[in-house]
Specification:
Blueprint (H helix, E strand, L loop, with lengths): L1 H49 L4 H7 L8 E9 L2 E6 L6 H4 L2 H10 L3 E7 L2 E10 L4 E8 L1 H51 L14 H51 L6 H32 L7 E3 L1 H13 L10 E4 L8 E3 L1 H18 L3 E8 L10 E7 L34 H11 L3 E6 L5 E7 L18
Parallel strand pairs: 7-9
Antiparallel strand pairs: 1-2, 1-5, 3-4, 4-5, 6-8, 9-10, 10-12, 11-12
């Protein structure tokens, strides 16, 4: 658009300058020609009248070079008034000769010319005084052919402006496409890398040293990024595996101690309870880390089954509250009638883990879940209608700035400073996002209708292609 606009402005400017300059010089040239021709004809008239030829005969024999396009008049100030003589009867002196020109020539005895339009035709009138007969010689030239020439010139300049604008647009599109094509490739590769495709690289462009340097630097950066991510993933996996053996030993020893808890004193039993809670929390954290490391390495297995969404959610809520503290009230499960007859394809183990983590998160930071709702979703990507499961609590809610980041690993936000926050690991919601992604769904957090936080997962109503990364993206509502 910029190239096209520039070409349009340039063509209009150059066309206007060319047209008005050409018209000026053509008119000036025609005026000079007319004055010269009228002067020759005036000399001819003066010579013949001096030789005794009558004025009528003299005007009849005046044959200017542009005779078909001119008219000659002679005004004589006689004893009985003004007498007009003319060579042509196409026009009359009163209509052909401007009054201002006649006043200048007759009144001031000065040669003059004037360009004007009469009866729709452009004309040049030339007036020359004749002192010998107390009169003046006038000649009127029609320049309609010059008007035609200027119209053709204007049309040609307009056509040239249109062509220039079109060529400018084409040139701009080609130039901008050629300039931005490398950046488009960089943007596409960057989006792919941000989506998890760390093996994507830029293709080096031959013959462009600037782009080659950019490509090389970009690929080196991605290589280092991939190496660091893989190194951290291996570290997490190795540490988790190494911790399993001593944890197993600790858990076995703890079971022996718990079997002998009756013989311990009060402080000993209290210490045993604290040790038991921390060991189990440690086991849960190591298990979460192993689950995430398997997902990162691509070795996570997903076993999809066709289930009834309402029954699945009720079963998952009941299973979750068997392991949660007994003093936490069980929320109501509301199933929208619109989901009747709709089936889900999910991994039941992963789905139950998702519900368990959301309910545990609500108990830690929101005072317990108040409702679990099952409702129809949209129809993503042409699949069967999806199902949405929402877990609501009555807590303080989540600030908008934390609603997307809350699914990051070990991110706990302002909740880290609340009562009871020390029992969380910061991995529960990250695992929720991973499990939902592996099943082709998405999860987000927003504000519940009555206040508090609401976590919503949406799963497709038919098997999803688990290799399709976009289907598993985590986003905010």
């Amino acid at each position: 658009m910029t190239f096209a606009l520039g070409a349009l402005v340039l063509s209009v400017s150059m066309g206007a300058i060319s047209f008005f300059t050409t018209r000026h010089y053509l008119v000036i040239d025609r005026e000079h020609t007319a004055i010269h021709e009228a002067a020759l004809n005036r000399t001819y008239v003066v010579q013949h009248v001096a030789a005794g030829t009558t004025i009528d005969q003299t005007l009849t024999t005046v044959t200017p070079h542009s005779a078909p396009h001119s008219s000659s008049f002679l005004e004589e100030q006689g004893k009985h008034g003004v007498v007009w003589y003319e060579r042509t009867f196409r026009v009359t002196p009163q209509t052909a000769i401007p009054a201002s020109l006649r006043a200048m020539v007759i009144g001031r005895h000065t040669a003059a010319s004037q360009t004007y339009v009469s009866q729709g035709d452009p004309r040049i009138a030339v007036g020359l005084p004749l002192p010998s007969i107390h009169g003046a010689y006038f000649e009127v030239f029609t320049i309609a052919d010059l008007g035609h020439t200027l119209r053709v010139l204007a049309l040609a300049l307009f056509a040239a402006g249109v062509v220039t604008t079109v060529l400018g647009a084409a040139l701009g599109r080609w130039a901008s496409g050629r300039s931005l094509r490398p950046l488009t490739g960089v943007s596409r590769v960057a989006v792919a890398i941000a989506g998890g495709e760390l093996d994507t690289r830029l293709v080096s462009a031959a013959g462009d040293p600037d782009l080659a340097a950019l490509t090389s630097s970009f690929n080196r950066m991605v290589d280092q990024l991939q190496e660091r991510i893989e190194r951290e993933a291996r570290f997490t996996s190795d540490v988790s595996h190494e911790l399993r053996s001593p944890l197993t030993t600790l858990a076995a020893s703890l079971e022996v101690l718990e079997a002998q808890a009756g013989s311990l004193s009060g402080p000993g039993r209290r210490a045993l309870e604290l040790l038991s809670a921390d060991v189990r929390r440690f086991q849960r954290m190591v298990g979460d880390l192993l689950e995430i490391s398997r997902s990162d390495s691509g070795s996570a297995e997903v076993s999809l089954e066709e289930v009834d969404p309402g029954e699945l959610v009720r079963h998952a809520v009941a299973a979750a509250y068997r392991v949660l503290p007994a003093d936490i009230p069980v929320p109501r499960v509301e199933v929208d009638p619109g989901v009747n007859g709709t089936h889900l394809w999910v991994d039941k183990r992963r789905f139950e883990r998702v519900i368990s983590n959301l309910l545990e998160n609500a108990s830690l930071y929101g005072g317990g879940a108040t409702a679990v709702r099952v409702a129809p979703g949209g129809e993503p990507d042409g699949r069967a209608p999806s199902i949405r499961v929402s877990v609501e609590d009555a807590g303080p809610g989540l600030p908008p700035s934390e609603r997307a980041r809350i699914f990051e690993r070990f991110y706990r936000g302002h909740a880290a400073f609340q009562r009871g926050a020390g029992t969380g690991t910061g991995l529960g919601l990250a695992l929720v996002a991973e499990h939902v992604r592996l099943q082709g769904g998405k999860v987000w957090a927003d504000e519940a209708d009555g206040g508090g936080a609401r976590f919503t997962i949406e799963l497709p109503g038919q098997p999803a292609d688990t290799d399709d990364e976009p289907a598993g993206q985590v986003g905010s509502a």
